[in-house]
């Protein structure tokens, strides 16, 4: 395990710092918006703007990578993330914040594509669940650390926005100074969502529903905590509890899915999400430790579901397709993330805090039900029969694009 992770240590460190700043932004912005008197629906628009630009980034960023290379694009995207945090602190206006969150969404989409291109070069199908689980664990720990920066500052001032900008800038240092090999050159590839659906319907629809769940969670969970009376520290602990649950169970769930039909794991996650959402609606807990315990349990089925979709889709892919598939799933996930904040925001305006978990219950029910239905439509692929994705000289991973590319090295692209 450690031999497989050593070459990507710098990349994982940059990921950790990037997500630490993202975790701070994720809790700071909704709380500051609430302090300004903005409604859940208005805050939901911040999430929609973020997700729309996130989806656009999946399409546009590969063009930039072809022109100047992965490392330079990664540096620019982290700079834009830092600028986005500073803009939020300077201009307090819901429509301006929607644009600033769109800038962050665009930049994070490109950053994820660079990071996941790097990871995909260093996994085989037998280790994909493990490597991506470690990647998700590092991401969640970063988000967790970011939550607890909030209690050390006042959301009504600019200080926390400046701290977030500094952390984003610092995320460039480990990867910028690393001597690890960059992702391989861009080659000819096109994006094919209909083909992705034919190849793996459960992964495509699952990514859409995972996006709805994540979009609602990322932008309205802090509002939910505020509405049920939690303090700033309590909201951070509530969100952190879910992340701890996700971090602990991410690896076991990923490994289990390497040995059984991944759709069965998706079904179990859907059932768990419905049960826990209904528990939050019916119990309506107000005691902090009860809220934290339930959120810990909720996190166990909240964070692993996207990596299950990615792994399941790649089980049915050719070696030259897995980066293209990852990009397609990110785009569908981004579309879902546009929808989630709008649904949850309106339900919270109508029904109060319980509207948040109504959105979650319905989404998880659809997620598990569709995975179960697909398991009846197509037989599972035995783990031993899953294709090997070991990188060979003639099987180079490809960066997703929406138009045809000529094989170019990064150096040649930079010269152009």
Helix and strand arrangement:
Layout lengths: L1 H4 L3 H27 L4 H29 L1 H21 L3 H27 L7 H20 L11 H12 L1 H6 L15 H7 L1 H27 L4 H28 L2 H22 L4 H15 L2 H11 L6 H30 L2 H24 L32 H6 L1
Helix pairs in contact: 2-6, 2-7, 2-10, 3-4, 3-5, 3-10, 3-15, 4-5, 4-7, 5-15, 6-11, 9-10, 10-11, 10-14, 10-15, 10-16, 11-12, 11-13, 12-13, 12-14, 12-16, 14-15, 15-16
Protein name: MFS transporter
GO molecular function, one term: transmembrane transporter activity
GO cellular component, one term: plasma membrane
Describe the 3D structure:
GO terms for molecular function: transmembrane transporter activity. The protein is mainly alpha-helical and 416 residues long. It has two domains: 1-177, Up-down Bundle (Growth Hormone, Chain: A), CATH 1.20.1250.20; 193-390 and 397-412, Growth Hormone, Chain: A (Up-down Bundle), CATH 1.20.1250.20. Helix content is 76%, strand content 0%. It contains 17 helices and no strands.
């Amino acid at each position: 395990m450690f031999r497989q992770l050593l070459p990507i240590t710098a990349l994982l460190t940059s990921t950790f710092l990037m997500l630490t700043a993202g975790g701070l932004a994720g809790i700071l912005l909704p709380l500051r918006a609430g302090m300004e008197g903005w409604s859940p629906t208005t805050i939901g628009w911040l999430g929609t703007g973020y997700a729309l630009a996130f989806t656009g980034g999946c399409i546009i960023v590969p063009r930039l990578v072809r022109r100047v290379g992965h490392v330079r694009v990664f540096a620019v995207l982290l700079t834009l993330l830092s600028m986005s945090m500073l803009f939020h602190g300077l201009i307090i206006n819901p429509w301006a914040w929607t644009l600033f969150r769109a800038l962050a969404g665009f930049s994070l989409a490109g950053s994820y594509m660079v990071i996941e291109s790097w990871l995909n070069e260093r996994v085989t199908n037998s280790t994909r669940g493990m490597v991506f689980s470690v990647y998700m664990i590092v991401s969640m720990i970063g988000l967790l650390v970011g939550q607890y920066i909030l209690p050390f500052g006042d959301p009504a001032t600019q200080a926390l926005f400046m701290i977030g900008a500094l952390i984003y800038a610092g995320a460039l240092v480990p990867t910028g100074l690393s001597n690890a090999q960059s992702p391989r050159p861009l080659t000819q590839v096109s994006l094919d969502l209909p083909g992705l659906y034919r190849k793996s319907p459960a992964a495509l629809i699952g990514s859409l529903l995972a996006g709805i769940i994540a979009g609602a969670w990322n932008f309205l969970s802090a509002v939910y905590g505020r509405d049920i009376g939690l303090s700033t520290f309590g909201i951070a602990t509530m969100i952190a509890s879910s992340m701890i649950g996700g971090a602990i169970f991410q690896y076991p769930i990923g490994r289990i899915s390497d040995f059984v039909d991944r759709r069965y794991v998706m079904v179990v996650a859907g059932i768990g999400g419905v049960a826990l959402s209904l528990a939050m609606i019916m119990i309506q807990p107000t005691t902090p430790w009860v809220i934290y315990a339930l959120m810990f349990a909720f996190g166990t089925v909240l964070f692993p579901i996207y990596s299950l979709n990615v792994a399941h889709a790649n089980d049915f892919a050719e070696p030259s397709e897995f980066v293209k598939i990852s990009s397609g799933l990110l785009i569908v996930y981004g579309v879902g993330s546009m929808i989630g904040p709008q649904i949850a925001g309106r339900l919270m305006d109508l029904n109060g805090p319980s509207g948040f978990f109504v959105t979650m219950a319905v989404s998880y029910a659809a997620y598990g039900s569709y995975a179960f239905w697909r398991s009846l439509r197509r037989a599972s692929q035995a783990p031993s029969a899953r294709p090997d994705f070991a990188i060979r000289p003639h099987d180079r991973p490809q960066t997703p694009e929406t138009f045809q590319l000529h094989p170019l090295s990064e150096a040649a692209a930079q010269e152009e």
